[in-house]
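Field reference: "sequence" (input) and "structure" (output). Example, EAL domain-containing protein:
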Amino acid sequence: MTAPDSRRVASEYMTPLLGLVEALAEGVLLCFGSRAIIYANQAAARILGTTRDALLDPLAPRFVHTVLDEHGRPLRRRDWPDARALRTGETVREAFVGLVNTRDNSVRWLVVTCQPLADDACGAPSASSPSGATGALEAADGAAARRGRCVMISFEDVTEVREARRRVRFLATHDSLTGLFNRAAFEQTAGAALPRAKLRGASTALLYIDLDRFKGVNDAFGHAVGDGLLVELARRFEKIVGPAGHIARWGGDEFLVLLDDAREAEAVAQRLIDIAAEPCALGSLSVSIGLSIGIAIAPEHGLDLATLLRHADTAMYRAKEHGRHQAEIFNPEMNAHLERRARVEAGLRRALDRNELSIVYQPVTDLRSAEMTGVEALLRWRSADLGEVAPAEFVPLAEETGLIVPIGEWAMKQVFGQAARWQTLQSAHAATLAPGTPRRVPLRVALNVSAKQLLWSNLADTVEQALGESGAMPRRLDFELTESLLLQDSATLALNLTRLQKMGIHFSIDDFGTGYASMSYLLRFPISTLKIDKSFIGRVPGDRDAMSIAEAIVAMSSALGLRCIAEGVETDAQLEFLRMVDCDAVQGFRVARPLDADEISRRLLTPLDAETVGPLQ
C-alpha cells in the first residue's frame, strides 16, 4: 500500500477522530497485520524521529529492527507488544520497551499500549469485501487481511525519564570515593544472600571493619591523604575478598564484608589486617594503619543483616578494647545491649496500655509560596521506665516483633482524627476571611506505613473504619511507603494499594534513591510524591554525587508529573540548592522541627503573608 492509499483508507474511516488524535501529545499508529502502518499522527513521527511519509511507505526501510524489554534484553518478534495484542486479541497496557533505531542503533524508550481492533474499526475491509482497497491491504499483509486483525498503538517517550532513573540508581548504589558498594547496595545484596544461604544450610559471616586511629591520619596529613588511604585500602580489600564475598564502604572509615563461607572468616580477617598494615605510598608519604574487625556468623548470631550488624559491631569494639589491630568473633556475653533490647521490647509491649506513645508533626513547606502545605506524622515514645526512646531504636524493633501492626493502627486513628480536626479548622477559618484574602491550601497529612502493615490482609478494612470514625477526608491523607516495598511481589500488597487508592488516599515513596524500585513500578503504582532521602540532602552542597542524585530525582519527578519533597533540610546552603534545582517542597530542622498538634493548629490560623522560610526554628 502506498502512502496516499494509506491516508485515503484512514481518512475515510477516521476523519471524525483525526482532529482529536492529531492534537494528542502521545504517538498513535494504526497498523494492519504485523507490518503495514495505515495511519500515524504527527506526534508518532516526532517521537520516533522520522516522518509520516516514511512511516506509511511500505517500501521504506524499517526504522526498528529490535525491541528491548525493560532490562535491555531483545524481545522475539512474537513478544513485541503489537504482536502480543494481535496474537491474544487482548489489549497490552503500558508495556515498557526500548526501540533500537536501524540508522544509528540508538535506543528510544517508550511506554506502549496496543489495542487489537476489528476490521471496520481500523478502516480495513474484510476478506469478503468487494472494495478495491482489499487488494492493497492484502498486498501489504495477505495473511493478516484474511484474519482481519488490526492494532492501534499509542505510546509516549520516557527516554529522558529512564536515563535520569539510571543515573540515580548508579549514583545511589556506589560510594563516590572508593567505588565500592554503599549502604543501599550492600543492604540489598545481603538481604538476598542471607535467605539463600539459609535455604542451602550454609553459614555466612559478616565482617565489620573499622580503621584504627584514622582520625589521626586526617589530622596529621590532611583529608586528601586520608581519602587516598581509603581508596588504596578499598582496592586491597577487594583483592583479598574477591568472588568469595561482597564488600561495601559503610561509613567514613568503616567497611563491611559478607563472606559466603563462614569457615573463611578468621583467615580473611587476618589477611585484611595484614594487608592494611603494609605501607601505602601516597605521594611523598608512606602510611600504614591498623584494623579492628568484628565477626558475626549467620545463622548462629542472627538471620538478618540488622542483627548481624549489631553483633559484628559489638565484636569490633571488643577488638578495640583488647588492643586494636585484631579480629574478634561475637559471643552473647559481649553484648550488654541485648539486655537493653529486651527491656525496650518489654516496654514497647506495654506502651499502648500505658499511654506512653504520642504523635508530633513536622511541617512540609512549599518552596515557591513558603506556605506550610502539609505535615508528616512522627511517632514518639516516652517510657516510664526507660525515658525517651529514640524512634531509630524502637521502630525497627516494633517491625521485627510485629508490634508495628497494633502500634500502626493506633497511630493511624490518632492521625486521622487530628487530620479531621484540622480540616474543620481550616474550613471554619476560611469562612471568616474577607473576600480577596489569600486562603491556605488544604493541609495534607502524611503517615509512614510499614511493610508489615501493607502486607496485613485487614489493612484496608482498618483504614476504612478509621476514616468513617474520624470523618477525615482521604484525599488529604498521604501514606508514605518505602522504595523497597514496591519490589515485593505480593497479591495482598497490590490489593491493599488498589483499595486504598479507590478510597482517595495518596501515596509517597519515602527515602527515595536508597532502594531499587524500577521504572515500571513507578508507572504501575499510584505514586503522587517522591521524597529525597536525607542521606543525600545531608551531603549537599559539598558532595557532587549527592547533588547530582538530588537534581536527578527532582528532574525525574517533574518528568513523571510527581511532587518532590526533600527531607532533612538543615542549612541555608541546602535550602538554596533545592531552590536552584526547582524542588517543590522541603522538610527538616531548617524550616521547622516536629511540633505538637496545637502548634500546627496555631500556624493554620496565621495569615499567609506572615509565612516565610526564615531562620532556623
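Confidence is low (pLDDT under 50) at residues 124-148.
The domain at 165-335 is CATH 3.30.70.270 (Alpha-Beta Plaits).
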